[in-house]
Design a protein that fits this description.
Layout lengths: L5 H29 L1 H4 L7 H32 L2 H19 L5 H4 L2 H17 L2 H12 L5 H6 L4 H19 L2 H31 L2 H6 L1 H11 L4 H8 L1 H31 L5 H29 L1 H24 L5 H20 L2 H6 L4 H13 L2 H6 L1 H11 L5 H33 L6
């Protein structure tokens, strides 16, 4: 059997870690759409209001991620990466595990949603700072002609995590009556997180200790040392790349919106508005999560061939074109899970993969190595609350505003997709200009 290369080991370790991290994060979104609004708020609360409140706890977690990135990044520089891996995994996994034991509203009243909110903040604080490192470990160590492809490998963690979360929740809903599922069945999925964290911690730390993995970190360490020489790398990022930061945040908007409309909000919409059972929605999630995996890698390959910004621009335009027919096909499906699955496979598994598989490498090419980690982490985490976290709750409000019609959600999603396409095009123009000036010996970005 052919021995794995150091880059392949890096990619595998990053993918496995990313999968468990996304499992914990996305499991919360699934539960917020199907469980939390029913057990953690007063029983006489209007269903729309209860759902918005449940999604609000989902959204607020995004506020903790930038602070987690700064905290663990600081101590990672001072103490070492191994400490930050252990600490962040323990914090994130511990918070996810603890959610399984929160009593419902009938037992502790207002302390139920407060406890949920606090643990969500701890969960997301632990998650902060890990995404950018995973992307750069593969991006920096790959051949320049294959960087987009290798940077797409850690992105597989999202569909793998969604698959695992949907699978466990689906098994619980299949074997338990609704009341039992709401009482304790959903808690099993959160309890499982503890064992997953222990397993991935063992695997990741052992791979990190091998010679091959340490050799693959050399380039990343050079980048970190350059970062340390700057007292405030974020200030340097804004000084040198202000427009790139703004356009980058613009491209982040379609990622956060399209994903949360079709993968998070759509769960509660189909269950509450169309009468689809939770079990069938979890099966739908499993289907489109599995279907997305080859397309994420495919679009990484495409981006290496035609360009990262161009691929992202086309994918954003495709999102805009798909939104109205996609959402109205689901609304008119009569709750048919097969129709819903086909629509989500087309929209999320295929079209959205053109965004998700490319955005890491798209942003990484915007910044010089010495401030690249800070740059892509800021673009991803800083705007997350507004461009991603509030989207499920906002969509629920827009649905109520439309009297149950999906029209305003469709308008919002389409507008965001077009705006992000324009931002991606601007990044292409800037990158082409940079490449030209770099060849002429006076780079300017």
């Amino acid at each position: 059997m052919k021995k794995m290369t150091s880059l392949q080991k890096v990619s595998l370790a990053t993918l496995m870690s990313s999968s468990v991290e996304w499992y914990c994060f996305l499991l919360y979104g699934l539960a917020a759409g199907t469980v939390f609004s029913k057990i953690f708020y007063p029983p006489d609360t209007d269903p729309y209001t209860a759902q918005i409140l449940a999604y609000l706890t989902f959204a607020i977690g995004y506020l903790a991620r930038p602070f987690g990135a700064m905290f663990f990044g600081y101590y990672g520089d001072k103490i070492g990466r191994k400490f930050t891996v252990i600490a962040s995994l323990c914090l994130m996994g511990g918070a996810t595990f603890a959610i399984a034991f929160i009593p419902d509203y009938s037992q502790i009243g207002i302390w139920a949603p407060i406890s949920l909110l606090v643990l969500r903040l701890f969960q997301c604080f632990g998650l902060g700072g890990k995404w950018g490192g995973g992307i750069l470990m593969t991006f920096e160590n790959a051949d320049p002609k294959e960087r987009a492809f290798y940077a797409s490998i850690p992105q597989l963690g999202l569909p793998v995590g969604l698959f695992l979360a949907s699978l466990i929740m689906g098994v619980m809903t299949y074997h338990l009556p609704e009341q039992e599922f709401l009482k304790w069945g959903w808690r099993i999925a959160f309890g499982v997180s503890a064992s997953l964290i222990v397993i991935i911690m063992y695997i990741r730390l052992h791979i990190m200790e091998t010679k091959d993995f340490m050799d693959a970190q050399d380039k990343a360490k050079e980048m970190e040392e350059a970062e340390k020489s700057k007292s405030l790398p974020l200030v340097e990022v804004f000084r040198r790349y202000p427009l790139s930061i703004l356009y980058g945040i613009g491209t982040r908007w379609v990622d956060g919106t399209f994903y949360n409309v079709f993968a998070v909000f759509m769960v509660s919409y189909c269950v509450q508005e169309l009468g689809v059972s939770e079990y069938h929605m979890f099966l739908v999630n499993i289907a489109f999560a599995l279907a997305s995996m080859p397309f994420i890698l495919f679009f990484g390959k495409v981006a290496d061939k035609i360009g990262k910004a161009k691929t992202f621009t086309y994918a954003s335009l495709a999102c805009a074109a798909f939104t109205f027919p996609g959402l109205y096909a689901i609304q008119g499906s009569g709750g048919n899970p097969f129709v819903i699955a086909i629509v989500l496979i087309l929209g999320w598994s295929i079209i959205y993969s053109g965004l998700w598989g490319v955005l890491g490498s798209l942003w990484a090419q915007l910044f010089e190595p010495e401030i690249r980690y800070t740059g892509i982490s800021f673009v991803y985490h800083a705007p997350s609350f507004f461009v991603a976290g509030i989207v499920p709750g906002l969509s629920t409000y827009l649905l109520k505003l439309g009297g149950g019609d999906i029209i305003y959600v469709a308008i919002f999603t389409t507008a965001v997709s077009l705006f992000s396409a324009w931002c991606a095009y601007q990044l292409k123009v800037r990158h082409d200009k940079y490449e030209k000036s770099n060849k002429e010996g006076h780079p300017s970005f």
